[in-house]
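User: I'm curious whether this sequence folds into something compact or stays loose and floppy. Could you predict its structure so I can see for myself?
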Amino acid sequence: MSRKIIIDTDPGQDDAVAILLALASPELEVLALTAVAGNVPLALTERNARQIVQLSGHQTPVYAGCDAPLKRKLVTAEYVHGRSGLDGIPLPDPTHPLQAEHAVDYLIDTLRREPSGSITLCPLGPLTNIATAFQRAPDIIPRVAEIVLMGGAYFEVGNVTPAAEFNIYVDPEAADIVFKSGVPLVVMPLDVTHKALTSREWVEEMRALGTPVGQAVASWTDFFERFDTAKYGSQGAPLHDPCVIAYLLEPALFSGRHVNVEIETGSELTLGMTVADWWRVTGREPNAMFMGGVDRDGFYRLLTERLARL
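Assistant: Here's the prediction. I'll summarize afterward.
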């Protein structure tokens, strides 16, 4: 039986690869994409989400959600993802429609309607939509099967400030709500994603597929690889968000620890830091499976095999 998921996203090239991986995998039933402001403003993230669905040939509905963090001004990342958020290859204007309902209302309605424990949430961006839904309708919280998210860092520290990873930093208050919600959490931090670097061979393998999806994935990767190789001095770029979907398909690719993770919301210096009690020194209740390792070759094998199906 396929696992029902909702992907909450702020596309982003790596978000796009994650969405395509999910849509290519029959084990997953993608009920919808819910867009949030993050990498770029909401008007672009919802548009990008529709373009990605259109590229995939699927009909997955797209809902637009929150256009700003709960308590802060929006911080975006055009310097990584380009002005559209999906720079790298021109895609046709989306004809795939945007749903009229607000993403937060969609999340609440769907979690109330579907059997309790049957839906997994997969946030790939700031957690504003999820936290807003939880605040507005606390009755849905115990109905969520699991949240598998990309965000945070511990040993790799930050990528937007010295201490914080972008998705958590953009809306730390939302992250705090989600991490304290009691929903089972699986976290894909930079500690994992920075071990899942692209290679020239893989990018060329994507291009050699000769499909619109292969071309797009290769071009997107070329685009944001330039930023990451300059920043980190690495050979490739981390594909952050596909780690979430790969975990749902092949959890054995990842290793980590079930520990307590708290979100810093008060400090100017470390705002948005995911403070993971990796060595279990606080005695606080574990609330997250915090991943630390990935089988890189297995991860890229899975990506190649699935993306070739679209």
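Summary: Strands lie at 3-9, 28-35, 62-64, 119-123, 144-150, 185-188, 254-259, 261-263, 274-276, 288-294. The chain has twelve helices and ten strands.
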